[in-house]
Amino acid sequence: MASGVEEVRNKQVILKDYVSGNPKESDMYVTTSSIKLKVPQGSKALLLKNLYLSCDPYLRIRMDRIQGSNVFTSFTPGSPLSGFGVAKVLDSGHPEFKEEPEQFFKIHHTDVPLSYYTGLLGMPGMTAFAGFHEVCSPKKGDRVFISAAAGAVGQLVGQFAKLMGCYVVGSVGSKEKVDLLKNKLGFDEAFNYKEEKDLDAALKRHFPEGIDIYFENVGGKMLDAVLLNMRPHGQISVCGLISHYNLNQPQGFSNLMSLIYNRIRMEGFAVFDYFHLYPNFLDMVLPYIREGKIVYLEDITQGLESAPAALVGLFSGRNVGKQVVLVSHE
Q1: Of 323, 288, 324, 321, nearest to 184 (Cα)?
Q2: pLDDT of residue 209
Q3: Whole-prediction pTM
Q4: Which residue intervals define the domain Enoyl reductase (ER) in the entry (predicted)?
Q5: What is the DSSP string of 17-48?
Q6: What's the pLDDT band for 103 if we cut at 50, 70, 90?
């Protein structure tokens, strides 16, 4: 106790220095300090107790020196990593969230797991919704391909597409994930890209008539192969390029002329531009959850100390589903 205000231990994951190449657990360390359980008098701050934290590939981008981006800012070496999560409000200068800060969403629906708000009902869910329904113009019968299809975003895009009556194929990095897509998530087909010697041939096998919509999470050789298999006036929604995040030099592409030949629309997007649609998203997705029409895979690891390993594991495909760190049950 200090000045009548309780103090508690506060753990943080600290970035040692800017990262080059593949991230390692040793690029981060966990430290413990103390924090007072009271916001300063007259402050508009929120004091939060983290319950669940979200591990997302974009965090790797922020561990590097970022130039020319108005979407992401670099983490500061020696300071904590920050991201999305679910937290309990312990003290607030915003009574009943009447002046709720822009990046905070108050949870009103608690009949679903709170961890879902790091994934299905959080940033990844909004990313899937915006990238598929807003960036693209899907319609029944479209042929949809999704890379990194067992991840936090890809698994949802596939299910949204199936609910619209599309034909859906996903690529993943293991036989286990292929089975999950086909037998649990309802994809029509799936393949393990690591076992395919020729990605162009693999796509032609699954899409003999071509691809209408590609939801891009990977980049690299996969995007080059997809460009050869897009149908005229096809749409590519660029969510992420995870194969590029650890490269010291940007990777080029060989088949960009296909964009011209087939009049393909390829558009990158940032989910932050679509947060105003969150109520619309909830109206769509909550009934699906309650009716059991959407399945969501989570990979939950316990304790803040496990966060560096969980984050690094994203880049080797160690996780199955949305990677979540459970910090506290309550």
Answers
A1: 321
A2: 97
A3: 0.83
A4: 46-325
A5: S---SS--GGGEEEEEEEEESSPPTT---EEE
A6: low
pLDDT digits (tens, 9 = 90+) for 45-89: 788 899 999 998 889 889 998 877 777 889 999 999 999 999 988
Instruction: Kindly compute the dihedral angle of the four CA atoms of residues 43, 45, 49, 50, in this order, to the nearest 10 degrees.
Output: -170
Q: Which residues contact 141 (CB under 8 A, 6 or more apart)?
A: 165, 166, 167
Q: Which amino acid does the sequence have at 247?
A: L
* Residue 322 three-state SS: strand
Helix H or strand E encompassing 11: strand 7-15
> What's the pLDDT at 205?
97
Residue with tokens 């030099």: 249
- Whether 269 has a pLDDT exceeding 90, the answer reads yes
| Cα–Cα dist 328/174, whole Å | 31
Q: Which one-letter amino acid corresponds to residue 43?
A: S
Q: Are 156 and 130 in contact (CB under 8 A)?
A: no
Residue 29 pairs in a beta bridge with 14
Using a 10 angstrom Cβ sphere, with 0-12 exposed, 13-18 middle and 19 or more buried, the burial of residue 249 is: exposed
Domain ranges of the chain: 7-119+297-326, 123-272
Question: Which residue in the block uniquely carries the two structure tokens 């983490």?
Answer: 75
* CA separation for the pair 181, 179 (Å, rounded): 6
Contact 144, 175 (CB under 8 A): no
The CATH architecture of the domain made up of 123-272 is 3-Layer(aba) Sandwich (3.40)
Contact 40, 92 (CB under 8 A): no
Stated length of the chain: 330
Residues 6+ apart with CB under 8 A from 73: 62, 66
Predicted pLDDT of residue 265:
96
**Average of per-residue pLDDT across 175-198:** 95
CA 38 centroid distance within chain: 32
